[in-house]
Amino acid sequence: MSAFKFIKAGSFFSAALILLWAGSPAGAASPAKQTRAVQYQTLNFPDNVAVAHLDVWTPSIDAKGAPSTVKTKVTAQGRIKVPTNAHIVMKLTYDGLDHLDTLAQFNPGQVTELNASRLDLTDAHMTYFKKFTSITRLNLDSTLITDKSLPILAAYKGLSDVRLSITDVTGAGFESLADLPIWLLNMEGTDLREGCLAKLKRLPETLVNINCSKTHIGPEDIAFLSKCQKLTGMGLDGNNKITDACVKDIVKLKLLDSLSIADTLITEKSLPALAKMPNLKQLVVRNKTFWKLGSGKSPRPTLQIRDSVAVSRTPVDVFGPLH
């Protein structure tokens, strides 16, 4: 049996005490009187396998009495202790897939973010995460899941960041996700059924960023997305059913500042209409097919038109915890 692996307290803890923010109104007890002992739970994982890497966020207050959180990095390996009131960002490991049963030791409300991207995670593996209904951010990019896992996601009532790119999800079960407050949706490289996005009925209220590149969506989906008036970023690359006729719906998105239409059938013909979009600052196209007249110029200085060949495909890491 390995020795205890304690969360490193550093300067944030004093012995086993931590200041907890109580959100008290004016006139309530001072922060010093709100101090109480930290409650820890002991968890046991295989000694020779790192099941997951954890960012443990513990509520606290700073020296001035303002609410804050303390972040500690922990590996789910051997015997560890974590505060019972901590929120946990969990990144699974490849070897950890054989030990997912050990994750049942966490309290249901502790895990708020889960990242299993680029692992051979299947629908069977997802059953181990049914209990973690407090998950708000989920990255399953490049995994082996299918539509069979969508009912599990539906139980995450606060799920707002959903990444399912390069999976076998087709959208056939999207109706189960209809009530989720999704603000970021990444479906790049999935074979979506045309019209399936309309099953996500709450998107017009919440959606801010969507990537549907190489998904086979068509005009029906663009018409639905035009109702998502909070959209600021949209990726439509590689969908050859999206034509100049779809632009009449795209221009309805008044807050859109970034649009990628490379390898669609949208051409320079639509540029005057796109240039009138009040907040559009970046338009990504494929020069060889977009420019029919060969002008290659933006109609206004605040709109940058970029060739997809020159645009880096390295994604921005926006899966960091929102703290």
What this model shows, in words?
- With 323 residues, the chain is of the alpha/beta class.
- It has a single domain (5-310), classed as Alpha-Beta Horseshoe (Leucine-rich repeat, LRR (right-handed beta-alpha superhelix)).
- The chain is 10% helix and 23% strand.
- It contains 7 helices and 17 strands.
- Strands 6-5-8-9-10-11-12-13-14-15-16-17 form a 12-stranded mixed β-sheet. It has a 3-stranded mixed β-sheet with strand order 1-7-4, with no helix packed on it.
- The longest helix is centred in the C-terminal third of the chain and has 7 residues, at 219-225.
- It is elongated, with a radius of gyration of 23 Å.
- The two termini are 35 Å apart.
- The model is unreliable at 1-35 and 314-323 (pLDDT under 50).
Attribute tags:
323 residues; alpha/beta; Leucine-rich repeat, LRR (right-handed beta-alpha superhelix); twelve-stranded mixed β-sheet; three-stranded mixed β-sheet; disordered N terminus
CATH class term: Alpha Beta
Mean pLDDT: 87
Cα(first) to Cα(last) distance is 35 Å
What spatial order of strands do you see in the largest sheet? Answer: 6-5-8-9-10-11-12-13-14-15-16-17
Q: Tell me the strand percentage band.
A: 15-25%
CATH superfamily: Ribonuclease Inhibitor
Shape: elongated
Question: Which radius of gyration do the C-alpha atoms yield?
Answer: 23 Å
Stated plainly, the CATH topology is called: Leucine-rich repeat, LRR (right-handed beta-alpha superhelix)
